[in-house]
Design brief:
about 15% strand; Rossmann fold; eight-stranded mixed sheet; 3 domains; 17 strands; 20 helices
């Protein structure tokens, strides 16, 4: 039975697992899943950008802190599935501050040297109440300003939160579920419900007042718990909070609330009230508030809390205070882990489910739900240095020098060969123009205008330009271990040559990807595709800088990888010629606990992916590279049909030339 969370806005991300990742559906195992963390960060960042209309950076916490300074949003470094919705709500909340809050208002309030930010009447009341014994005028100012600012800041945060949350809640109804989850976590817990109904927090002090104010949105609020609460409720008028247009208006309202609370808190020199509920006398059940209203205090309808419940309530209150002050505690993420997550996010790494319906294991015929294929869309130096992937990895140890990826010699040879091939492909830059004269329609031929007076109606011409259609070539290279050596070197030399040649002609783009396998969180192996080069956005220098870190450590998940990148391969229509070129030396094989991928079922699955490409107008050219540890040619042809060709590794350069000649043929 599927495990779900009540009212979870993210339920559409979940699967039937008992412990699962809300973004990918993966089982959660010990260890950090950097792909998941990057996806979470990216997803929440997208939510914040959509709602706020601003490109606001979302980062993971590296310290025990959380804040927004108007420029960025800090979120937890370890988001569990049950906390995803509240975390999104919190990120939207903080992001909304970046959009709507004037942080200069808060800075001026907290500036102890700025006396203009505090109304004079408020200053005088507090000075008379708390600073009578000050040694000098400067000491008096410091005491008063510090006292007022600390309390008014909390009230300002509360009013401002209500203002901006109302704005986003109303203007982006699709995200209301995340806000509800956030409020349920921080303000509508059971222990808070009990605390509001209990005799707790009914003393005439700031601790009690703030608890009651910050929970005014809770249906269990008790406006008779303290004198003046009903006045504050009416003053806030939460149903009309949209009338508060900016942060300065929120501050003015915060000062008014501060005045009401202070009018009901006895000064330090007065005798402290006796009894519960702030009664100064057992016979006195009522107290006049500053605004003149009468508020009846009550002991509450709830039961006394147990010591354990009191402890839980105090913890909940502290979390509410932290939330109000943007100091919610986060799970720390080390600088090293944060760097890895950032590298993962920049790389565009994501999981795609592939192979659904294929056998789950070799012992029975039960079909599974498939497995996840890792797709890395952009290779960067940070990703190579992160050590996250075996296929794209910068080895620093001298003992690993044999694993230097694609050698500098091979890269340079490919560039040199590509330059020669590019010169031969200059024909793609040429176009021919043919003009037809003396037509009855088209563009007026100025030379024929004079003949109009003699009744000539054929004074138009049309110009036809004959040129090559734009073309895009996706080269997919098998990065399995059996490719290591001469097959690996010459395959890459050919691919690099094609990429270089394409930079020298018009309307020809090249994408190079590698098929491999990678170990992800929890030691689980997954198929993996690395988009190493894309001429539509990358310069050829990316090959010279980064291809040296590409390795061939995996097995052959062939069709699973093809399925994962179907949406990346451009269709061959709308005036574009699309080619898919495959270099491979083996038969499909991959196995983990989700899927068993080999033999006839794997052949058919790969053939299906190839046929899907053909149906989209993509010309598939598949080359079977022979050598040591190669598979069988008949199986290769079963997958690729008429497009399958056997190539000896020593003649792969001839192959590169023949492929490029095809691009010059209309």
């Amino acid at each position: 039975m599927a495990k779900t969370f009540k009212n979870s806005t993210s339920n559409f991300w979940l699967d039937d697992s008992t412990n699962y990742d809300v973004l990918t559906g993966d089982l959660i195992k010990p260890g950090k899943d950097y792909v998941k963390m990057a996806a979470t960060k990216r997803a929440i960042g997208n939510f914040v950008s959509i709602v706020t209309g601003k490109s606001i950076p979302v980062t993971f916490s590296t310290k025990d802190e959380s804040f927004t300074d108007g420029k960025q949003v800090v979120i937890s470094g370890n988001i569990k599935d049950k906390d995803f919705d509240p975390t999104v709500g919190l990120a939207l909340h903080e992001g909304s501050h970046c959009k709507l809050t004037d942080f200069d208002v808060l800075k001026k309030l907290m500036d102890l040297d700025n006396s203009n930010s505090i109304p004079q009447n408020i200053f005088d009341v507090i000075a008379d109440k708390y600073a009578k014994d000050a040694e000098d005028e400067e000491d008096k100012k410091w005491i008063v300003r510090n006292y007022i600012r600390n309390h008014v800041k909390s009230l300002l945060n509360y009013v401002e939160d209500r203002r901006i949350d109302n704005f986003v809640y109303k203007s982006a109804p699709g995200y209301q579920g995340y806000y509800q989850a956030m409020y349920n976590k921080y303000f509508h817990s059971k222990v808070v419900d009990k605390g509001l109904q209990s005799p707790e927090k009914r003393n005439l002090d700031w601790d009690s007042y703030f608890f009651r104010i910050i929970n005014l949105t809770n249906k269990n609020r008790d406006l008779n718990a303290l004198p003046g609460l009903n006045d504050i409720w009416n003053l806030l008028d939460l149903r009309r909070i949209s009338r508060i247009r900016d942060t300065k208006a929120s501050l003015d309202l915060a000062f008014e609330i501060f005045g009401i609370v202070e009018s009901n808190i006895p000064s330090p020199t007065q005798e402290k009230p006796k009894g519960k509920g702030g009664e100064s006398d057992k016979k006195s059940k009522k107290k006049q508030s500053k605004s003149g209203g009468t508020t009846t205090t009550s002991k509450g309808n709830g039961k006394e809390l147990t010591p354990s419940q009191k402890h839980q309530l105090n913890s909940a209150i502290q979390k509410q205070k932290d939330f109000n002050n943007s100091e919610t505690k986060k799970s720390n993420l080390s600088k090293s882990d944060n760097k890895k997550v950032n590298a993962m996010q920049t790389s565009g790494s994501e999981f795609k489910n592939v192979g659904s319906g294929l056998p789950q294991n070799r012992w029975d015929n039960n079909n599974g739900k498939g497995t996840n294929c890792l797709v890395v869309k952009n290779l960067t130096l940070d990703l190579a240095e992160s050590g996250l992937y075996e296929t794209f990895y910068k080895y620093n140890s001298p003992g690993q020098s044999w694993r230097n990826g694609i050698s500098e010699v091979i890269i340079n040879d490919g560039i040199r060969l590509g330059t020669m091939l590019g010169k031969k492909l200059q024909i793609r830059n040429e176009s021919s123009t043919l003009t037809y004269n003396r037509l009855r329609k088209g563009k007026i031929d100025k030379r024929m205008i004079s003949s109009l007076g003699f009744g000539n109606e054929q004074v138009f011409n049309q110009v036809f330009v004959d040129q090559f259609e734009p073309a895009i070539v996706h080269i997919s290279i098998d990065a399995s271990g059996s490719m290591n050596g001469e097959k690996w070197n010459t395959s890459n030399k050919a691919a690099i040559a094609i990429a270089k040649a394409a930079t020298m002609v018009q309307n020809l783009d090249v994408i190079i990807s590698y098929r491999s396998t990678e170990e992800v969180s929890g030691g689980k192996m997954q198929p993996a595709v690395f988009i190493a080069y894309d001429s539509t956005k990358d310069k050829i220098t990316k090959i010279t800088r980064l291809f040296q870190y590409i390795h061939c450590p995996g097995v052959t998940p062939e069709g699973l990888c093809f399925e994962a990148i179907q949406d990346i391969i451009v269709d061959g229509n709308n005036g574009t010629d699309s080619y898919f070129i495959n270099f491979s030396d083996g038969e499909p094989y991959f196995e983990n606990k989700d899927i068993t991928y080999y033999g006839e079922s794997a052949f058919k699955h790969t053939a299906k992916q190839v046929e899907n490409m053909r149906s989209r107008g993509i010309k598939v050219l598949s080359y079977f590279i022979t050598g040591n540890y190669s598979g069988k040619l008949e199986n290769f042809k079963a997958m690729y049909g008429k497009d399958a060709a056997q190539v000896n590794v020593t003649k792969l350069m001839d192959l590169a030339r023949s492929i490029n000649k095809r691009f010059a043929i209309k």
